[in-house]
């Protein structure tokens, strides 16, 4: 099945991708709102019989979107389990892995030369860092709170700290001179340091030359101003959408 549209259902965003012969041509982020979906269908000129593939980490929204697609005359494959995807899952509980992590791994595997390991970094509501080994298998990784969750926790679990917006501003990671800047610096330091340490740990676990690192996710701009020492990162905003497209194409 080669879909015309792929949809990645996140915790806070619904990301659509319009497929081209060689990948993802257009990407748009939408709210979980059928009115917004209908407007995007009209904008892209999608008609009855359009083939869709859907997956993600928010099952109620994914179920609603799949049902909505069928209600407008489309056909939809809904990926519900990571074990459906055409990639070995070398972890303790394959069915319990977040399917978004596996979509990203599947896409990364397709973008690297043969026998080359890859690391994916997805910065969203949560941050995940995942390893694809040189044989092309998903080997697991790590999960920690995303920048927005950190900011909300500081606001909600302290008496006086404010909620700050995180924009990936180039303030640097040195001492901040006011509270808002100190919170931004602290959160961005946690994300940058955590990601860097986990990438290094993943690459130590797969000691093959020439490993590639891919970064994606709606909050990935937090990492943008910073250079991670000894790590070359490639920004791939449509990484998970590409993984959904590849999984759907493998269905035949």
TrEMBL record:
<dbReference type="InterPro" id="IPR004619">
    <property type="entry name" value="Type_III_PanK"/>
</dbReference>
<keyword id="KW-0963">Cytoplasm</keyword>
<keyword id="KW-0418">Kinase</keyword>
<comment type="similarity">
    <text>Belongs to the type III pantothenate kinase family.</text>
</comment>
<comment type="subunit">
    <text>Homodimer.</text>
</comment>
<dbReference type="InterPro" id="IPR043129">
    <property type="entry name" value="ATPase_NBD"/>
</dbReference>
<keyword id="KW-0067">ATP-binding</keyword>
<feature type="binding site">
    <location>
        <position position="179"/>
    </location>
    <ligand>
        <name>substrate</name>
    </ligand>
</feature>
<dbReference type="GO" id="GO:0004594">
    <property type="term" value="F:pantothenate kinase activity"/>
</dbReference>
<keyword id="KW-0808">Transferase</keyword>
<comment type="pathway">
    <text>Cofactor biosynthesis; coenzyme A biosynthesis; CoA from (R)-pantothenate: step 1/5.</text>
</comment>
<keyword id="KW-0173">Coenzyme A biosynthesis</keyword>
<keyword id="KW-0479">Metal-binding</keyword>
<feature type="binding site">
    <location>
        <position position="125"/>
    </location>
    <ligand>
        <name>ATP</name>
    </ligand>
</feature>
<keyword id="KW-0547">Nucleotide-binding</keyword>
<keyword id="KW-0630">Potassium</keyword>
<protein>
    <recommendedName>
        <fullName>Type III pantothenate kinase</fullName>
        <ecNumber>2.7.1.33</ecNumber>
    </recommendedName>
</protein>
<feature type="binding site">
    <location>
        <position position="122"/>
    </location>
    <ligand>
        <name>K(+)</name>
    </ligand>
</feature>
<dbReference type="GO" id="GO:0046872">
    <property type="term" value="F:metal ion binding"/>
</dbReference>
<dbReference type="Pfam" id="PF03309">
    <property type="entry name" value="Pan_kinase"/>
</dbReference>
<dbReference type="GO" id="GO:0015937">
    <property type="term" value="P:coenzyme A biosynthetic process"/>
</dbReference>
<feature type="binding site">
    <location>
        <begin position="98"/>
        <end position="101"/>
    </location>
    <ligand>
        <name>substrate</name>
    </ligand>
</feature>
<feature type="binding site">
    <location>
        <begin position="8"/>
        <end position="15"/>
    </location>
    <ligand>
        <name>ATP</name>
    </ligand>
</feature>
<feature type="active site" description="Proton acceptor">
    <location>
        <position position="100"/>
    </location>
</feature>
<dbReference type="GO" id="GO:0005524">
    <property type="term" value="F:ATP binding"/>
</dbReference>
<comment type="function">
    <text>Catalyzes the phosphorylation of pantothenate (Pan), the first step in CoA biosynthesis.</text>
</comment>
<dbReference type="GO" id="GO:0005737">
    <property type="term" value="C:cytoplasm"/>
</dbReference>
